[in-house]
Amino acid sequence: MPEIVRRGLTGESAICDETIEVFCTTLGTVANDRAITLGAFGGLYIGGGIVLRFGQRFAQSGLRQRFERKGHFSDCLAQIATYVITAEYPAFLGVSAILEKKLMAGT
User: Fold this and answer.
1) What is the pTM of this model?
2) Mean pLDDT throughout 14-37?
3) Are 64 and 27 in contact (CB under 8 A)?
4) Residue 54's Cα: distance from chain center in Å?
5) pLDDT 10s digits, 58-86
6) Facing residues of 44 across strands?
């Protein structure tokens, strides 16, 4: 996979670039199913190292168009923001926020 990403991002291989695009658009389809199923109206957060390695290529991909393509749910999905998690250890940030809140409450 690292070689596919490298060759796709550098423009060295059209098929590798297409593979990245297929990954992104497929992720958009999976994400729209999850957003509807879970009622993620406050936004959908996408994490993982592979997405971060795509950089600007991810932002320019068809993910968002595919995310919004869902028949009669399209208007609803167009209102849901998508975010990429860029923190190195996002789970630790969440846990520390919970711990701080508990400590402040005295529990």
Assistant:
1) 0.82
2) 96
3) no
4) 11
5) 999 999 999 999 999 999 999 999 999 99
6) 82
